[in-house]
Amino acid sequence: NSLYPFPIAILVADPDTFVGWSRKKGVNGSLEECCKSKKLTKVLVKDLDTDARAYGLNTFERIKFIRVIPEAFSVENEMLTPTFKLKRTEIFKQYKSVVEEALSEQATSSTSK
User: Among residues 79, 107, 104, which one has the least CA distance to residue 93?
Assistant: First the structure.
């Protein structure tokens, strides 16, 4: 949504690789526990920001907040249409709290500087 000051990413963890990657980064646990790890989300944000800088993206184009989720978007959970297109309205409703958390974190970090 272009009304927000920065991009927010909701990443779907690949169950076959995410837990192994998490272990390499020092976080052990189930897929759900790894998805909730603040340490891993910080690593992801940092890595994506490094890549974004390397590709010359502007500050407002760089992802500042990531939430990793264990469940893929699907027709069954009503996040995709039968032709596998994203249902953006449904996704926003489901993850509205993630957007609010991201904006709150950004406001907190801006006032603490």
Answer: 79
At 93-112, the pLDDT tens digits run: 999 988 888 888 877 766 66
53 CB-near residues (< 8 Å, 6+ apart): 62
Q: Is 81 in contact with 87 (CB distance < 8 Å)?
A: yes
Give the length of the chain: 113
The partner residues of 86 in beta bridges, in order of sequence, read 80
Instruction: Average the pLDDT over 55-84 and give the result.
Output: 94
Q: From start to end of the chain, where are the E strands?
A: 8-12, 65-69
